[in-house]
Amino acid sequence: MTARLIVDFARCTGHGRCYSTAEDLLTYDEEGFVSVRHEPMVLDENQLPDAKLAADACPELAMRIEYGTESP
Ligand code: SF4
């Protein structure tokens, strides 16, 4: 199983709560938006807990985790 962290580009308003909550997983771009806004992030099992916390912290519901069965 694979998991990807995906940000809805249009919904992300750059609050920064996601990368503040998951500092070891996420960072931000020069405009203060989470950097995965530009490209989905493939997650390994160890990263999933932080990714879930980050997604739950987003007030815009802009961040989600998608699960698939294909190889990363
Ligand atoms: S994904 Fe959500 S919490 Fe993260 S920067 Fe965008 S709007 Fe803010």
Helices, strands, pairings?
Layout: E1 2-7, H1 17-21, E2 41-43, H2 48-57, E3 63-68
Antiparallel strand pairs: 1-2, 1-3
This protein binds iron/sulfur cluster.
Pfam families: Fer4_15
Protein name: Ferredoxin
Organism: Nocardioides vastitatis
Strand percent estimate: 15-25%
| Count of runs of 4 or more consecutive helical residues | 2
Oligomer: single chain
Q: Give the low-confidence spans.
A: none
Q: Main β-sheet, in a few words?
A: 3 strands, antiparallel
Strand order of the largest sheet: 2-1-3
State the name of the first-level CATH class: Alpha Beta
- Estimate nothing, just give the exact number of structural domains: 1
Beginning-to-end CA distance, first to last residue: 9 Å
Task: Give me the strand/helix succession.
Answer: EHEHE
The assigned structural class equals: alpha+beta
**Mean pLDDT score, rounded?**
94
Helix content bin: 10-25%
Shape: globular
Walkthrough of the structure:
With 72 residues, the chain is an alpha+beta fold. The protein has one domain: Alpha-Beta Plaits, CATH 3.30.70. The protein is 21% helix and 21% strand. It contains two helices and three strands. The protein has a three-stranded antiparallel beta sheet, covered by helices on one side. The mean pLDDT is 94. Iron/sulfur cluster (SF4) is lined by residues 7, 12-18, 33-34, 58, 60, 62-63. The site of iron/sulfur cluster has 14 residues, from helix 1. This is Ferredoxin.
